[in-house]
Amino acid sequence: MSSRQMKPKNLLIIGTLFLLMQCAENKPSEYTIEAKFTSESPIIDGLENDLIWQQITPVVLKENRAGNDVQESGLQTHVKTCYDDSTLYFFFVCNDPDIWTSFTQRDEHLWENEAVEIFIDVDDVPETYVEIEVSPANIIFDSYIVDPLNIDVPKTALFNLKGIRTAVVVSGTLNERDDQDDHWTVEIAIPFADLANENIKEVTTATEIRINFYRLDENQGMERMSYAWSPTGGRFHKPAYFGNLTFK
Ligand SMILES: [Ca+2]
Ligand SMILES: [Ca+2]
Ligand SMILES: [Ca+2]
After folding, report:
1. Nearest ligand by distance to the CA of 99
2. Nearest 5°: phi and psi at 192?
3. Whole-angstrom Cα distance, residue 227 to residue 50?
4. Predicted confidence (pLDDT) per residue in 56-99, tens digit
5. Long-range contacts of 147-151 (CB under 8 A, 24+ apart)
6. Helix (H, G, I), strand (E, B) or coil at 227
7. In sequence order, what are the beta bridge partners of 178?
8. How far is the CA of 43 from the centre of ligand 1 (A)?
9. Which ligand is nearest to the CA of 145?
10. What is the mean pLDDT of the chain?
11. Gap from CA of 82 to ligand 3 centroid (Å)
């Protein structure tokens, strides 16, 4: 046997590792978020004082790479969701000592600064889903991903959610990097009709929806962080890790 040939024991170890990696990729998500119905639609103004938001307990994002809880409350991210007959709503609270972004136009690369993100997959094809980002300046990036491993950003970003509405409130001073900010909130409305695609003609509360929430945060003097509801361990574009959105 030449030194370049693997010993059977080594092959077995590599094979086992490969299988374990496959299992990790395909593990059904334990993450479920339940959207609560509201007959009174929240007002999209970035304020959490709508009655429905008062009735919902948020989910909390974790450190995406390590999968750990965020210990420091001043850095935590909370997300709520609800729906009415036509629309899905989301509310993010991002605790943040340093709120900034340089982008001013739709579909610019918001992920290079600070942003919250929602990935929504409404059809049976894991490779196709909508990516939505909102910056602290209330700029939107929206795209329709068709190949998570090979994303053509200019092309996928041509997709626009026609009826999306967003609002941001900054509690602090946007882009003044040297003072101490508190938090920023993002309120988002997405019509169900905007989520239909070539694989699914109509999206309703009967649709099996897979979803994940993320946030990118970078503060003066601190390490750049990424947060996720269902942590992916690395890049965000891993649909196998998306959680489930259910309706009640
Ligand atoms: Ca509101
Ligand atoms: Ca920040
Ligand atoms: Ca777009």
Report:
1. 2
2. -50, -40
3. 26
4. 999 999 999 999 999 999 999 999 999 999 999 999 999 999 99
5. 148/237, 148/238, 148/239, 149/237, 151/237
6. strand
7. none
8. 4
9. 3
10. 92
11. 23
Q: How far apart are CA 122 and CA 145, in angstroms?
A: 12
- How far, in Å, from the CA of 8 to the mean position of ligand 1? 62
Q: What is the pLDDT of residues 127-156, one digit of tens each?
A: 999 999 999 999 999 999 999 999 999 999
Torsion sign, CA atoms 243, 51, 137, 68 = negative
Express each pLDDT in 186-231 by its tens digit: 999 999 999 999 999 999 999 999 999 999 999 999 999 999 999 9
Nearest ligand by distance to the CA of 139 = 3
The domains of the chain, with CATH numbers, are: 32-247 (2.60.40.1190)
Ligand 1 ion: nearby residues, β-carbon < 5 Å:
42-43, 45, 47, 50
